[in-house]
């Protein structure tokens, strides 16, 4: 279960998406602009942000930058009702995980959420695996000595 923040200035999106994403087993939070989104970020651990690109006051690119300053591991997916090649390229270059076009295809959205969260989980597990590798390396001499002692006792 992940905490997902949905940021959009369209009321329909803020009413429809949380309900659907909750059915997929995630907890959702909503914000109608970037400033509200940052307030939610202050009070909750957010794993993934789904944000509109064009919003009044603070656009999606500005929100993405602020989110990355707060939590580099938080994934951001962009939504747009104004698709263009330039905006897709800009979204990816600015650090967005992916780019979806409104109206949202829910199967595609679920796939992108699942892939993004799986990738984030893998990235988070790397330091743990490195730690386990070091523990195993450190314990090798202990096990060798223990093996020698057991071998001598069994003779």
What is the secondary structure topology, with strand pairs?
Layout: E1 3-7, H1 11-23, E2 27-31, H2 34-43, E3 48-52, H3 60-70, E4 75-80, H4 85-94, E5 98-101, H5 106-154
Parallel strand pairs: 1-2, 1-3, 3-4, 4-5
Helix pairs in contact: 2-3
Question: What report would you give on this structure?
Answer:
This protein has helices at residues 11-23, 34-43, 60-70, 85-94, 106-154; strands at residues 3-7, 27-31, 48-52, 75-80, 98-101. With 155 residues, it is of the alpha/beta class. It starts with a strand and ends with a helix.
What's the gist of this structure?
The protein has 155 residues and is α/β, with parallel strands linked by helices. Helix content is 60%, strand content 16%. Strand 4, helix 4 (85-94) and strand 5 (98-101) form a beta-alpha-beta unit.
């Amino acid at each position: 279960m992940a905490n997902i923040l949905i940021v959009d200035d369209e009321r329909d999106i803020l009413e429809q998406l949380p309900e659907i994403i909750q059915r997929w087993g995630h907890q959702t939070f909503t914000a109608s602009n970037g400033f509200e989104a940052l307030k939610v970020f202050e009070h909750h651990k957010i794993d993934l942000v789904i944000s509109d690109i064009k919003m009044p006051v603070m656009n999606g690119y500005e929100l993405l930058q602020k989110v990355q300053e707060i939590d580099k591991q938080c994934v951001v997916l962009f939504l747009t009702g104004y698709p263009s090649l330039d905006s897709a390229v800009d979204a990816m270059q600015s650090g967005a995980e992916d780019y979806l076009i409104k109206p949202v295809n829910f199967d595609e959205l679920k796939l992108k959420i699942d892939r993004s969260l799986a990738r984030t989980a893998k990235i988070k597990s790397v330091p743990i695996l490195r730690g386990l590798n070091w523990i195993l390396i450190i314990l090798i001499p202990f096990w060798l000595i223990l093996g020698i002692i057991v071998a001598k006792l069994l003779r």
